[in-house]
Amino acid sequence: MAERAEAMRAPQPVRAEPVEAPCTPRSVHAEPVEAPAPTPTPAAEPHPLARLRPWVIPALLLIAFELYARRASALGSDSLAPVSAALKAWWGAAMDGSLWQATAFTLGTAALGLGVGSLLALAGGIALGLSARAARMGFMTTELLRTVPSVALIPLAMLMFGFGVRMEMAVVAFATFWPLMLLVQAAVRQVEPRLLEVSRVLGLSARERAFKIVLPAIAPRLFVALRLGVAVALVVAVTVEIAANPNGMGYAMMIAQQSFDPALMLAWLGWIGVVGYAINAGMLRLQQRVGRRMGAA
């Protein structure tokens, strides 16, 4: 009995009951929530008067010149004419057809000279841009001839071609050739070298390389060069007509000056500016349109 009592007093071992692992919640894959597309904010339309801002300064200058010329005429001066008189003279020249005839001659001759100069500049610029040896050989000739003023060639052109279209076209072509060639040469040098390496691997000829690789790569820069060439061609054409060629807008302006007709002279001067502005605006719009099409392609 005593042994049984002692056994009952002894501490009984405690059974370790199995502990269940806490159930972990299954990972729930959250579906990606698409952010709402931002609603495009409508572009603020420019105020109708905002388009007139670029014309404020020219309008003020014309008004100031009108007042100054009227005051000079009141004081007995015949060297200037007001803008209103120049507009009347311009309308008279437009009605009798002399305005359009002289404008067509100047623009046509400038376009011919620009076309000849551009084609030669494109060929020379591509050749000098692709060949470092040709660029080194032609460096001295280019630097010597491009510094010759185009007006200095008028006597030589008169001896070779006489008066008329060919003389003016030759001077315009010489004046536009050099800046265009240098711009084309610089554009060709910036063509990606890997494109030229691919053309060599494919075994393309020099002509195929120029038309299929180089020209598409430099097309945007060609329009910048062409805009510069258009401005140079118009300036040189009018200068040649003032100095030597008895045709075109420059000659008509000189005849008005020698006839002591300041209103007609100012009419021709303003018309030359309007024609130059219209040509530059047209070239800029053409460049933007071609750039958008090439970017879309």
Report on this model:
With 297 residues, this protein is an all-alpha fold. It is built from eleven helices and no strands. The protein has helices at 2-9, 56-74, 83-96, 98-130, 132-145, 154-161, 165-189, 193-201, 206-243, 248-258, 262-296. α4 (98-130) packs parallel to α7 (165-189), α6 crosses α7 and α9 runs antiparallel to α11. The radius of gyration is 39 Å and the shape is elongated. The N and C termini lie far apart (108 Å). Residues 21-30 have low confidence and may be disordered.
Layout of secondary structure:
Elements: H1 2-9, H2 56-74, H3 83-96, H4 98-130, H5 132-145, H6 154-161, H7 165-189, H8 193-201, H9 206-243, H10 248-258, H11 262-296
Helix pairs in contact: 3-11, 4-5, 4-7, 4-9, 4-10, 6-7, 7-9, 9-10, 9-11, 10-11
Q: How much helical structure, as a percent, in the residues? A: over 70%
N→C terminal distance: 108 Å
Number of strands: 0
What count of helical segments does DSSP give?
11
Average of pLDDT: 79
Rg: 39 Å
Percentage of residues in strands? under 5%
Concise structural overview:
This protein is mainly α and 297 residues long. Helix content is 72%, strand content 0%.
Features:
11 helices; single chain; mainly alpha; 297 residues; 0% strand; elongated
